[in-house]
């Protein structure tokens, strides 16, 4: 797996049970996965030489991020490296303009959008949708970076000018009056086998996925089925191998596709405890073309909350407190130094009452961050 | 953790989520845990120098086997090393004569027994219990090794002579007419906090734990409570820290203590999927004096079956088949070369009907071994 972050760390855990030889290409020895994995290659996890060498040393290469540049992916495939997902589907995850264009061709429901080359493109677009609108960098954004909600033509012009100066292609999307945000994950293997997980509710804060409730409480069966079908259709149409996460807006009428990610995803961390097959195991099964595992859930609800760093870098005492207060909370630490706002782990709780679970997951996350003190 | 076997490998998985710095002292780089862990010390996992150096390099030392000789344990403690469990409780796990003596003092129900220094001791004992009787090496036995069921005085004399030649102390136990074998696990922390798991049924074959059904179907609440209380009492009385497994015989009247193990145990592998807190996570929490996790179960039943090697060392094709036939079977491979009869992994299935689960777990294990072909 290229990249040594927490997704790679948790994939390593799954690889142990499967008995799969798992290696990581990590930028440094203190990377989340590099701290725990027995087979670590240190190198530039976006650079041509290092990714190429890593691909030569491994039968299959997959990714814990989408930041390996297209020319690098191309060179690896041309040298005979087996990328899963491959360069072709990854282009859609790396470039929102390509993604939007392809989804429009497929007839997938989505926010209205257009490519932006000038401030006038934005004002013309907003004349149809109304202000505010959402400007997005087509490439390089994640976790809320590269997304700007603009209220008027002046604000839009400022973003467009800055993007032009940095040579970043832009698109504009309508700001959807959604009821809530949802996500659905599907695994697809090279054989074409798919396994789809229940649709979950995601609670975003500052552009970062904060909490996940699985399955999304009160979601109509129509919308749930539609969302799952959409994920399967997109996975097939784009030729995805491995996990695909489809982030969605729920509106009164249905669901709209917001973003795609072709890797294990924060919205699927709940599957470690909540589903028979975790997204990490499923990703491995899919990219290795093994038969997929069951995505079935046991408990009625599973709630996940991200652990973000607070002001105090010392979390040990608070960690003990959280464990003692609620022995059913499952804690996942990523081995990262604590910095304010940094994702340092997550907690998961399973049970019957999603309100109770959310309260408990939040209490653990808030306490660990130091908010209650 | 001293020892690089599968118990260490699965403890490593649990350490990743807890964010605990976990290192292994393994005899070789191909040891089950050494293959996957990022922090491996190669050395003699029973030898004075290497265990001493390992203890100096780590805050807390625990074990995946009971074979570190007592003088080594003593030297480590005298040098200030923190062993959990400590030398004191470990003596009872290492020496069945000590264990039987202590359990008798505690009034724990157990098979009748006595120390054996001559063939006459056995015949005198059998005069009270009837033949056959069970001779056991007091030290060094595991997985059925060091246990002999003898039918008469001649057979007993042969075992006694061989043991005397090898300087192995012996004891004799009555052969209990048990209804089935049970096991119960308890975690105890240095604080004295305990967490006890449901009593399970274990199915032994050739002295090796083959299958585990959790909880033991149809076990009366009286017996279940008695078994759990026994485990807690023994853990406290012996000063155990970490996981304690108590293997039991169920008889018409109650339960009898058969064996003790002070580490994660084969009878607890089901907890990875079947309980909120796996025995591996619980062992780490206990030996690190962290608050213990909930041993609660979600599914009504969990069944575990060991995967033993068959004649054919190539299991890949059969592995695919097992995954494809039953996508709900959870496979755990230990990274070991396949040899006939060797434990190479285990499978776990959770659900409502323990008969169905046992059938499915057996089918997977049998197919993987090559029995169906």
TrEMBL record, chains A, B:
This is N5-carboxyaminoimidazole ribonucleotide synthase. GO terms for biological process: 'de novo' IMP biosynthetic process. NCBIfam families: PRK06019.1-5, PRK06019.1-6, purK. It catalyses: 5-amino-1-(5-phospho-beta-D-ribosyl)imidazole + hydrogencarbonate + ATP = 5-carboxyamino-1-(5-phospho-D-ribosyl)imidazole + ADP + phosphate + 2 H(+). Catalyzes the ATP-dependent conversion of 5-aminoimidazole ribonucleotide (AIR) and HCO(3)- to N5-carboxyaminoimidazole ribonucleotide (N5-CAIR). Its EC number is 6.3.4.18. Pathway: Purine metabolism; IMP biosynthesis via de novo pathway; 5-amino-1-(5-phospho-D-ribosyl)imidazole-4-carboxylate from 5-amino-1-(5-phospho-D-ribosyl)imidazole (N5-CAIR route): step 1/2. The keyword Ligase applies. GO terms for cellular component: cytosol. GO terms for molecular function: 5-(carboxyamino)imidazole ribonucleotide synthase activity; ATP binding; metal ion binding; phosphoribosylaminoimidazole carboxylase activity. The lineage of its organism: Bacteria, Bacillati, Actinomycetota, Actinomycetes, Streptosporangiales. The gene is purK. Belongs to the PurK/PurT family.
């Amino acid at each position: 797996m290229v990249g040594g972050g927490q997704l790679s760390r948790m994939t390593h855990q799954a690889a142990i049970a499967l008995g799969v030889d798992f290696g990581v290409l990590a930028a440094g020895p203190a990377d989340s996965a590099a701290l725990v994995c027995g087979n670590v290659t240190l190198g530039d996890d976006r650079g041509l030489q290092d990714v190429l060498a890593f691909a030569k040393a491994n039968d299959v290469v997959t990714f814990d991020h989408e930041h390996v540049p297209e020319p690098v992916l191309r060179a690896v495939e041309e040298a005979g490296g087996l990328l899963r997902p491959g360069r072709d589907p990854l282009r859609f995850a790396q470039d929102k303009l390509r993604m939007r264009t392809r989804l429009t061709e497929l007839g997938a429901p989505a926010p209205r959008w257009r490519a932006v080359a000038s401030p006038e493109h934005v004002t013309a677009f907003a004349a149809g949708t109304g202000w505010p609108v959402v400007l997005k960098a087509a490439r390089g954004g994640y976790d809320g970076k590269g997304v700007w909600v603009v209220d008027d033509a002046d604000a839009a012009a400022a973003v467009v000018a800055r993007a032009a100066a940095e040579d970043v292609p832009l698109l504009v999307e309508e700001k959807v009056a959604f009821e809530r945000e949802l996500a659905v994950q599907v695994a697809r293997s090279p054989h074409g086998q798919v396994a789809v997980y229940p649709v979950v509710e995601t609670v975003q804060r500052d552009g970062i996925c904060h909490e996940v409730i699985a399955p999304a409480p009160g979601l109509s069966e129509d919308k749930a089925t539609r969302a799952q079908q959409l994920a399967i259709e997109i996975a097939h149409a784009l030729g995805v191998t491995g996990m695909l996460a489809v982030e969605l807006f729920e509106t009164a009428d249905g669901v709209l596709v917001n973003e795609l990610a072709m890797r294990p995803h924060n919205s699927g961390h709940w599957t470690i405890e909540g589903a028979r097959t975790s997204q990490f195991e499923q990703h491995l099964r899919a990219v290795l073309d093994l038969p997929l595992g069951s995505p079935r859930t046991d408990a009625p609800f599973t709630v996940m909350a991200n652990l973000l760093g607070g002001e105090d870098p010392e979390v040990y005492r608070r960690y003990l407190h959280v464990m003692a207060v609620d022995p059913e909370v499952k804690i996942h630490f990523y081995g990262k130094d604590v910095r304010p706002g940094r994702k340092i782990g997550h907690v998961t709780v399973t049970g019957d009452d999603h309100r109770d679970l959310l309260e408990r997951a939040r209490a653990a996350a808030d306490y660990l961050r130091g908010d209650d003190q």
